[in-house]
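subagent[fold] <- orchestrator: predict structure for attached chain, return tokens only, no commentary.
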Amino acid sequence: MTYAFTFEVPIDPTTYARIKEALGPEKPPGLVAHLVHRTPGGLRYTDVWESQADWKRFVEERLHPVVDRVVTAALGFRPSEPEVEHLGMVDAWVGD
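subagent[fold] -> orchestrator:
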């Protein structure tokens, strides 16, 4: 079942670029779309995944180790997990 959510993080585009670079170029298995835009408080992510299990696997195996290192270095502390807003997906139409 498709899993989608959005959340805001208190980082800037430079920190985001460091995270993405550290994750490497390989697309995570199960990722359908990942969108990031600026907000007054930082950046907002909106993700669509093939399943919640795919998302959780990516978080545990790849994302958290990188975020712990990069964000802690950038901010001087590890912020708490952001509040996640789950989205009731009807459709995800993405290009090739």
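orchestrator: received. Logging for downstream: The two ends are 21 Å apart (CA to CA). The CA atoms of residues 18 and 87 lie 27 Å apart.
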